């Protein structure tokens, strides 16, 4: 598998239920030979000084030591392609 699409049902309702700084997470999946990958959408943004109302955060979490080339899309917003080395955290599209 080299492409994953995650559709979140009732996203507007879920966004109202999730506080800023908390994610909605996909089920774990495998892609390009990497196991236990998770997508994380922060519908109300991430905590931090750069956060603005109306923005979300979208991240990919992979196990430590993995590497992927990926392009992330949320609606019309796009980031990538980017080569990402995962070192125990998530990488993503914070706006």
Order of helices and strands: HEEEEEEE
Question: Largest sheet, if any?
Answer: 5 strands, antiparallel
Distance between the termini: 27 Å
Strand fraction: 35-45%
Query: Shape, please?
Result: globular
> How many individual helices?
1
Task: Provide a brief overview of the structure.
The protein has 95 residues and is mainly beta.
Keywords:
95 residues; mainly beta; 7 strands; two-stranded antiparallel ribbon; five-stranded antiparallel sheet
Description:
- It is a single chain.
- With 95 residues, the protein is mainly beta.
- The protein contains 1 helix and 7 strands.
- Strands 1, 2, 3, 4 and 7 form a 5-stranded antiparallel β-sheet that branches. A two-stranded antiparallel sheet has the order 5-6.
- β5 and β6 form a beta hairpin.
- The radius of gyration is 13 Å and the shape is globular.
- The termini are far apart.
- The mean pLDDT is 85.
């Amino acid at each position: 598998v080299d492409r994953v699409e995650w559709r979140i049902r009732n996203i507007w309702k879920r966004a109202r239920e999730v506080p800023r700084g908390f994610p909605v997470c996909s089920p774990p999946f495998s892609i390009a030979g990497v196991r236990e990958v998770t997508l994380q959408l922060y519908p109300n943004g991430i905590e931090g000084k750069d956060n603005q109302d109306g923005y979300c955060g979208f991240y990919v979490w992979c196990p430590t030591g993995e590497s992927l080339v990926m392009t992330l899309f949320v609606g019309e917003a796009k980031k990538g392609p980017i080569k990402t080395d995962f070192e125990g955290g998530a990488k993503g599209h914070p706006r």
